[in-house]
Amino acid sequence: MKFLKNIKYTTAFIACAMLLNSCEEYIEEDIFSDITSENFIDEDTADQLIVGVYGEVRSAYSNYTYKYEGTDIFTSQNDVTSISAGNDYVGVTAPNTNGLWSSNYDIIAKANTAINRYETQISWSESRLGEKAYGIAQARALRGLAFFNLVQQFGGVVLDLEETLTIRSDYTRSTEAETYAQIIEDLEAAIPNLEDAPEPGRFSKRAAQHVLAEVYLSKAYLSFGSSTDFSTAATLAEQAIGSYDIRSQSYAEVFDYNNQVNDEVLFATQFGAEGIIEDKSNNKHSLFMYQVFNLPGISRSNPYGFKGDNNMPTPFFYSLFSENDSREDVTIHRALIADEEQSGGIAEIAVGDTIIYFPKVALDAVELADHLDRHWVYQPDQYGFGRPTDIPGTTFLYSENTEFSNFPIFKKFDDLDFNETGEGARDTFVFRVAGTHLIAAEAYLGAGNSGQALFHINRVRERATGVADEYAAITIDDILNERALELAGEDNRWAVLKRTGKLEERINLYNPAVVNHGAFDANVHLLRPIPSQELTLSPGTMTQNPGY
To answer: 222: helix, coil or strand?
Structure first.
């Protein structure tokens, strides 16, 4: 059961009650009910505060700012000569507001409120002190996760750890080292009181161990990192993996729409088709695709969805899939299929006809001409923007396709219940055990234990290809390539490349727009700009990152 469903009404009421209570010295109103935050929130209703924190996690993991574009495996859909500041680092300026910043601080604010109310407002009976500890543990774990999302992008941030009851204009950023210390403190305090197997949708002990492993792994590369950080990260990753064998499910089974709650998923943000509108607000199915309903034979109610961003996989990403890698068929659509009939136009089209085919290996001239009598074909070097030259005498002329960017769209996030505004019902997997194996591989490699690093990367590879011990040696590039294949669109690719010191090298090798005209500057672009609104609100204390 999805525990977030149908709780937002209660959470909204609590929020309103708390807001009125905190502003009572400014607003005087007649009270027509004796229900307030003080007498509504007790040990029976306290969990609604925690559920409210999870509600904000949905927003944070529906915001993809800074996670994908401008990396080695995702680029802009536009012509390689066009300018996209986020992708090619040309003319990057500080935005007024930023969804990644605000959504994670919304998590932090609600976590702070929950912790404060659990500790100071609610009178807990002796027999329910375990519930108190469990609630605080969830709030602290989610707060640590939110701070980690922020520090990876912005460096040191505001470590606001108290419930906000007044308007402030003196916020100050902590150092990056202080931010990491707070994240570690939150997660280490939370882990002992989290449950091993909570109801789906809640943060488990193993999910927290996974996050803490990645925190230590990221810290290990930094100037203030400890010599033991790599080994600590490896130990935590092993604990998060536990006894689960990822080979017990195929990659296809993990992403089966009817198997969204499965043992490989350590944590997911939950959505659904029922309840109020927030339950059906996941737009992940709209990533890495173009407006396919503009193609003949594909309707607006097609099974693929609607374009939600302007990013696409790079040619390098497509090239990573080996012939025996089962993840390819799960991850991308190599053919787009008609879901409605069409008479006239380019050709007579029936439901089930192929409209575009994207071969993995280029077709020869004879094969290509044969296919173009039945559907368009875009060869591997034609994925992306531009119209190939028409092949005379064929039915499907490239000049007849009104879409300029054509490429194999993503499949792994396909939804069965979505609408034109991009709202879908599918859950978003935040952490999976396969990803934990790759954290372990990187941590063991950093610690100098190549044997254990090979074990973990080969476990992931074996599930994908059926070949045991395929890697005989291992480098950080091997791990990054395997992460691309296993976790594309799931992990924060930009943060991973930054962590490993590979961002500049790999975008200059594999991102076509960056290769053409990129202006990446490691002295500036390894940190994102602080939203200008934050500097305006605390003009005497908040500072901007260098170069913005």
So the answer is: coil
Coil, helix or strand at residue 269: strand
The single residue listed with the structure tokens 């085919």 is 357
Contact by Cβ (8 Å): 533, 97: yes
Which residues are registered as beta bridge partners of 342? 349
pTM: 0.92
Per the CB < 8 A criterion, the answer to whether 386 and 79 are in contact is yes
User: How far apart (Å, rounded) are the C-alpha atoms in residues 460 and 191?
Assistant: 26
Asked if 300 and 308 touch (Cβ cutoff 8 Å), the reply is no
- Phi first, then psi: give them for residue 213, nearest 5 degrees: -60, -45
Which one, of 56, 513, 33, lies nearest residue 315 by Cα? 513
Contact 333, 352 (CB under 8 A): no
- In order along the chain (548 residues), what is the average pLDDT of each group of 10 residues? 46 40 32 46 95 95 95 97 96 96 98 97 97 98 98 98 93 98 98 96 97 98 98 98 98 97 96 69 93 96 93 98 98 98 93 98 97 98 96 96 97 90 88 98 98 98 98 98 98 98 98 98 98 96 97
For residue 170, the one-letter residue type is D
How many angstroms separate the CA atoms of 184 and 410, rounded? 35
The C-alpha angle 58, 64, 70, rounded to 5 degrees, equals: 165
Q: Residue 510 to residues 71, 177, 218: CA-CA distances in angstroms?
A: 8, 32, 23
**CA quadruple 191, 197, 201, 202: dihedral, nearest 10:** -30
